[in-house]
């Protein structure tokens, strides 16, 4: 049997190590080329050796028991793991498959050995990778998951981490058994956005990012969750996502609280502005009526005194004329202060008031200011009219102080539901960084005034340089 024609081909052509050894002496009878090259022993050297000479951890008791089982016919083959030692002392793990060959006049054992170094290294790497993955998942807040959308539209959760129950109130086993439970957890008003975002991610193979609310029946509670995952198309069709779900309820509550606080601040700011304007109006009226009336009476009385002075009292007449001019200047100051506090021009409508302020700016700043409007008058609530006028005044003040402009264009237009005021200059413009400065109160005040009225204010760069301030206010 050892001299069969196929034996040399089998022995020398195999990539596995093949050993043939005597049943009684355990000496090697045949060793193929792959074994000799791996062990780095010559054929003569191996002929004087037994399996114990090349196997580092092979127990004589285990090998003897295994060989007896093969020789008695109890088993047809046996498998052992061992470590082979090369001639140079280096080692490599092997897997041995042993057979008994009952030939005549002597029987033999045949051992086929395969180097399993690569397999063991792969197993170690896989084990280390799994350990790292478990460590990452266990320390990741939320739920790590895999989600599968099959071609027929059915869904599954191939993997769910231990955070499933803590986040969703459903065990991973139950959700994997019935994946449709997850959609049932989502509040009805949020389900469509969930399905739409999933469909968009699947069709475009782009990241899936969704926020929504779920109802936890076990705790009678509503949670906000966020899921972020990356899709990949499967060869057999369908899409699978790997990602994470997290509880964002606290951040959502904080966000809602911030929105409420901002709304309250906006209401307070609007109320403060209304109170300020009311107080300005009251002060302006008192200054105009009381001080103005008193100054007029003083001027009349002074004129009477001057007419009754003796002709030879020229010095007193000069003093009286000086006091009279001082009264005139004071009356002018009263009118100016009253106008600043509450421009009476607003009584003629916002269009007239804006046009008058544009002419005043042109006269005082020496900068040409072109005004146009598509309406003779715009019906605004008094609070809206005052706020729009104040915003316009602030914009002109900023232009005169900072823009370095040589021309200003003002347009006031009206549509069916809003008034639009646009102030454009050809100055140096406003850099985005300047708008964000902590002490940039002018622009902030303009924005707050517009927001308090439900409107919007934007500041942008003009096409030909300079800046454009645009205000939109809804008509009440």
Brief summary of the model shown:
With 476 residues, the chain is α+β, with helices and mostly antiparallel strands. It is built from 16 helices and 15 strands.
What does the secondary structure layout of this molecule look like, with pairings?
Blueprint: H1 6-13, E1 17-22, E2 28-31, H2 33-39, H3 43-47, H4 51-54, H5 60-71, E3 77-85, E4 91-101, E5 108-115, H6 117-138, E6 143-149, E7 155-160, H7 164-168, H8 172-177, H9 181-185, H10 188-204, E8 208-216, E9 221-233, E10 239-247, H11 249-307, H12 314-341, H13 350-365, E11 369-373, H14 382-403, E12 408-414, E13 418-425, H15 432-435, H16 441-452, E14 456-461, E15 467-474
Parallel strand pairs: 11-12
Antiparallel strand pairs: 1-2, 1-5, 3-4, 4-5, 6-7, 6-10, 8-9, 9-10, 12-13, 13-15, 14-15
Key terms:
Beta-Lactamase, 476 residues, five-stranded antiparallel sheet
Highest-level CATH class of the largest domain: Alpha Beta
Task: Specify the overall morphology.
Answer: rod-shaped
Note the beta-strand portion. Answer: 15-25%
CATH superfamily of the largest domain: Histidine kinase-like ATPase, C-terminal domain
Q: How many structurally independent domains?
A: 4
Mean pLDDT: 86
What class do helices, strands and sheet pairing give? alpha+beta
Measured as a percent range, the helix fraction is: 40-55%
Number of strands: 15
- Supply Rg: 47 Å
């Amino acid at each position: 049997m050892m001299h069969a024609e196929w034996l040399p081909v089998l022995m020398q052509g195999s990539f596995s190590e093949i050993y043939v050894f005597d049943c009684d002496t355990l000496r090697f009878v045949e060793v193929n080329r792959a074994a000799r090259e791996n062990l780095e022993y010559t054929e003569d050297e191996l002929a004087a050796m037994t399996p114990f000479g090349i196997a580092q951890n092979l127990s004589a008791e285990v090998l003897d028991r295994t060989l007896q089982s093969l020789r008695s016919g109890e088993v047809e083959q046996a498998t052992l793991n061992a470590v082979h030692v090369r001639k140079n002392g280096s080692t490599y793990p092997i897997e041995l498959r042993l057979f008994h060959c009952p030939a005549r006049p002597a029987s033999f054992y045949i051992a086929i050995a395969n180097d399993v170094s690569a397999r063991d290294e792969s197993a170690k790497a896989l084990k280390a990778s799994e350990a790292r993955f478990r460590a990452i998942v266990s320390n990741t807040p939320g739920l790590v998951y895999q989600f599968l959308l099959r071609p027929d539209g059915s869904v599954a959760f191939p993997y769910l981490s231990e955070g499933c129950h803590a986040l969703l109130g459903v065990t991973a086993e139950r959700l994997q058994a019935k994946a449709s439970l997850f959609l049932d957890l989502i509040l009805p008003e949020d389900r469509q956005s969930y399905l739409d975002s999933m469909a968009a991610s699947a069709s475009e193979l782009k990241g899936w990012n969704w926020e929504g609310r779920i109802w936890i029946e076990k705790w009678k509670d509503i949670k906000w969750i966020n899921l972020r995952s990356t899709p990949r198309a499967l060869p057999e069709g369908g899409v699978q996502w790997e990602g994470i779900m997290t509880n964002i309820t606290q951040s959502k509550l904080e966000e809602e609280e911030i929105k409420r606080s901002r709304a309250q601040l906006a209401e307070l700011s609007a109320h403060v502005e209304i109170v300020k304007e009311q107080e300005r109006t009251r002060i302006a009226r008192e200054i105009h009526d009381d001080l103005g009336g008193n100054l007029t009476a003083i001027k009349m009385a002074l004129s009477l005194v001057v007419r009754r002075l003796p002709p030879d009292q020229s010095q007193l007449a000069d003093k009286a004329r000086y006091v009279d001019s001082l009264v005139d200047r004071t009356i002018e100051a009263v009118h100016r202060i009253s106008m600043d506090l509450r421009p009476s021009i607003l009584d003629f409508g916002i269009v007239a008031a804006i046009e008058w302020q544009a002419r005043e700016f042109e006269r005082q700043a020496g900068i040409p200011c072109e005004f146009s409007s598509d309406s003779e008058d715009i019906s605004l609530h008094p609070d809206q009219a005052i706020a729009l006028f104040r915003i316009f005044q602030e914009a002109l003040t900023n232009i005169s102080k900072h823009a370095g402009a040589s021309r200003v264009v003002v347009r006031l237009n009206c549509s069916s539901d809003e008034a639009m005021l646009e102030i454009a200059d050809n100055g140096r413009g406003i850099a985005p960084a300047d708008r964000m400065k902590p002490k940039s109160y002018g622009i902030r005040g303009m924005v707050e005034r517009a927001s308090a009225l439900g409107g919007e204010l934007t500041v942008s760069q003009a096409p030909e340089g300079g800046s454009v301030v645009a205000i939109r206010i809804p008509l009440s």
